[in-house]
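Researcher: We're teaching a course module on how sequence relates to structure. For the next exercise, students receive a sequence and then see the predicted structure as tokens, so they can try to spot secondary structure elements on their own. Here is the exercise chain.
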Amino acid sequence: MRALSSSETLTVWERGTRCHPLDRGLLALSFSGRSAGESIADWPLGRRNRALLELHAAWFGSQIEAWAACPQCGEKVEFELNLRDLTPQPEETQQTTAAVGGQTFRLPTSRDLAQVATASDEREATIQLLKLCGIGGVEPGAWTDDIIEKISESLAAADPMAETRVALTCPACDHEWSDSIDVASFIWAELEARARRLLWEVHALASAYGWSESETLALSAARRALYLEMVRA
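Model: And here is the predicted structure for the students to work with:
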């Protein structure tokens, strides 16, 4: 994946401020050169997440720092994660469907998640999602917890990268659990921080030299940094 230019960083950030969090990752991927005319919203979630991992590594590096609240005692647990450790198996080995109880399901996509985003609760969202992904066979007469769990487990096995989880241990109470990692949110946080830094540099250099935004962004990061040093001096 190619690096993101300064002007592109501001473009992605500005567009992303008007997007739903679910769409920000897709927006970033559209600038990565990976779509090749395809609709990224129709990629299986595992393929999308794999691409987001590669995108974060290319734009911001593979190391991230994060934290999670312990579900048992509420302690803030900080951790570092190398995204390369989450590198999945090759796409070619993945299944494209899952079969459970005589019904066949395709892998969920970002477009599917968008359609269930307004569901009243998590269970209802899961049922709606499974209905959207059903492509063959007879739909269950009743969506019992057991049926939902079996189908969800089958889809997770077919697309293991659909959800990225890390194992954590609380240093305060020794409670162990796993938490989901939303790589798109880390990409957005990095993009927003970089965009704000770029806008500050534009403001500082425009105030000192009268340069336009495009003239300032056309400078390399090293040149901008040197000019800022001279302005501060």
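Model: If you want an answer key for the exercise: The mean pLDDT is 90. DSSP finds nine helices and seven strands in the chain.
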